Amino acid sequence: MSIPVLMYHHVLPKDGFICSSIENFTKQMNFLKQNGYYTLSSKEFYMYKKGKFKAPKKSVFITFDDGWRNNAVYAYPILKKLELKATIFLVTGWINKASEKKEEFEALEHRECKKIAPINPHKVIMSWDDIESCNDVFDFHSHTATHRDEYYGKLSWQEDLAISRDTIKQQLGFEDKHLCWPRGTFNESLIKQAKEVGYEVFYTTQRGVNLADNNSLYIKRIAVKKDEKWLKKNMFLFSNNIMGSLYAKIKPQ
Ligand SMILES: [Zn+2]
User: Among 54, 110, 129, 169, which residue's beta carbon has the most beta carbons within 10 A?
Assistant: First the structure.
């Protein structure tokens, strides 16, 4: 058995680049609910990888990257209604900036978000208050402090990893073990640095299977596209060790 880990970024009125439309996201979540899928919390996924949590046969781990505010505005109510759980990987420096001044939400597509983020961060990025108000559905982990984008200044990798973990500790009160690599960039030396800071579970952007094999260095994720039919096919493929591994070799990203 393998647990598929889904990777989302934006949920907005229309489909787009790394963005699911509200309609398609709703259909996908309804598909999971109606077909009896269990959505794991990050803690359960961590225990599953260690071989210490017997996940139901139909399990899935839903993740969102970056901390876009549209996750709180559009994805949250859909997940809450269906009683599904998900994890958001936060770029902690962005969240800090978005928390400085309250602004009106804008439903902007990815490129527009990236343009406006350095100027009016809270229009598109979640604040710590937004995060608190949706923590009954989402749990939150590290996606570095800067995402290696220089919106609000430059940091060394060392600082980027340590500051993000410290910020999570300060704001959310726990020692974070989960790190999602920004843009899927990592190498063995970065893994070593991140382990020294205290991270144990590392999320990539590569497709593949996730077995209960006590190795959490290369969590495989599926970038979600299209609609519930696409999801159904991919859930089927990546729940199966052999098919999932083969398919990931043919289409690694
Ligand atoms: Zn990211």
Answer: 110
In degrees, rounded to 5, the angle at the alpha carbon of residue 202 between the alpha carbons of residues 58 and 46 is 45
> 163, 68, 73: which is closest to 125 by C-alpha?
68
Per the listing, tokens 């579970």 go with 201
CA distance linking residue 10 with residue 20, whole number of Å: 6
Q: Which CATH class is domain 5-250?
A: alpha beta
Q: pLDDT tens per residue, the chain (253 residues)?
A: 999 999 999 999 999 999 999 999 999 999 999 999 999 999 999 999 999 999 999 999 999 999 999 999 999 999 999 999 999 999 999 999 999 999 999 999 999 999 999 999 999 999 999 999 999 999 999 999 999 998 888 999 999 999 999 999 999 999 999 999 999 999 999 999 999 999 999 999 999 999 999 999 999 999 999 999 999 999 999 998 888 988 888 888 8
- What is the 222 CA–ligand 1 centroid distance (Å)? 14
> Could you give the CA distance from residue 84 to residue 37 in angstroms, rounded to a whole number?
9
User: Buried (b) or exposed (e) across 29-54, using 16+ Cβ within 10 A?
Assistant: bebbeeeebbbbebebbbbbbeeebe
Residues 48, 76 contacting (CB under 8 angstroms): no
Compute the distance from residue 88 Cα to the ligand 1 centre, in Å: 10
The amino acid at residue 80 is: K
Instruction: Say how many Å lie between the CA of residue 197 and the centre of ligand 1.
Output: 20
pTM score above 0.85: yes
Alpha helix stretches (DSSP H) within the chain: 22-34, 42-49, 69-70, 76-82, 92-98, 110-116, 121-124, 128-133, 157-172, 188-197, 228-238, 241-250
